[in-house]
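Tutorial, part two.
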Amino acid sequence: MLPQTFSDEADLERWLCEPSDALIEFCRSLRGRLLILGAGGKMGPTLAVRAQRAIHLANSEATVTAVSRFTNSAARTWLQNHGVETYAADLLDRSHVDSLPEADHVIYLVGSKFGTRQNPSRTWAVNTIAPTYCLQRYQTQPIVALSTGNIYPLVSIDSSGSAESDSVGPIGEYANAALARERLFEYFSIENKTPVVLIRLNYAVEARYGVLVDLAIKVHSKQPIDLTQGYFNCIWQGDANDAIIRALPMATSPANVLNLTGDSVLSVRSVADRFGEYFGRDVTFIGQEATTALLNDSSLLHRHFGKPSVDLERMIGWIADWVQRDQPLLGKPTHFEVRDGGF
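Running the prediction step on this input gives:
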């Protein structure tokens, strides 16, 4: 049963790491080392521990190794305290990649988005050089690679969003670099017969960051809400991580593609008004909803895995309570309202 609220960060993280019954069942047949590259970011630590916990509950002999630069030593300590082996490496350094441990399955979470406007060359390096090295290192192992729905163009708000078979149309340097990353995975998947599944995500949220947190903070602090980017998708981070791990058997050559998000298109106006009700605030809006938005149709994934376990109303309630009690935030706005691709 899902909680009504989270008492503190430890409680939140415990629930973010709680695997679904389906993930536990999947892990019963998992063997060898699951290597998670880029495990030190926003999603990586709880994904790694969720996998480790599912393996433990499944009585599997598989292991989890988390790889990152670990510039934040606290993340490394937290992972180790939760039973996950860690390995420090800079994936832009070929010698570091070559020295990585052997693996039987790989989850690739490496990417660079924010700061692209100030330092575009680093974004391109992280999103193209690092995957090249890693794909040359792991040529036979199935790989789940995290991508982004930003590679799609803006689509009509009356649609259900871009599907996997739709044409791409990246806007801005970050989105183009993300598409380049996808193309490299596709190339090596064909060239080396590497099984790959690309996961195009928009947007993961939890109580400390995400689109819903961005809106909650603005409503709570009585800031106006810009409606121009008036519609969006999101999914609870726990559900997103669960799906990423369970996608391993869907890796194929040529590469497979799956969208990952919630099961509906959400209205900025409606969500902000709902936060206003929780906070007892009148919400101020500026601008008008554009006729297009960045929207992601993940009905294909839901047909395979079922709908997310956490619905919108539950997420809003959790986040409203968290923000109202002035609990810790990651301080990393999503900038989901950006329409020109400048991050």
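Residues 229 and 288 are 9 Å apart (CA to CA). In part three we will examine how such features are distributed along the chain.
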